[in-house]
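Work through what follows:
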Amino acid sequence: MMKKIEAIIRKSKFDDVKDALHNVDVNFFSYWDVTGVGNEKEGHVYRGITYSTSEIQRRYLSIVVSDEFVERTIKAIIDTAATDNVGDGKLFISPVEEAYRIRTGEKGNDSLN
């Protein structure tokens, strides 16, 4: 079986998370920049200017792994992306019914490596 792990993290933590994923042998994933609306209603003040924290720039990662890689992938992301501040992000895990490598036609876990 396979799982899709979707992570929304701080852009500033992306390089650290990418390195942590490579360290646990997760070497393929997609990512893109996103803007989201968060729960925090108050802005942060920096040098007398209030900045909105309800609309936040983030990086979205989409990772499909075999079941044996799920826990290490989650741990790598959480351990690396956490700052203990509001807005560290979210993780979502969902089942993947099937996967194919287009070039070779391999399917299932064989298509992931």
About this structure: Strands lie at 2-10, 30-37, 44-46, 49-51, 55-66, 89-96. The chain has two helices and six strands. The longest strand covers residues 55-66. The chain has one domain: 2-111.
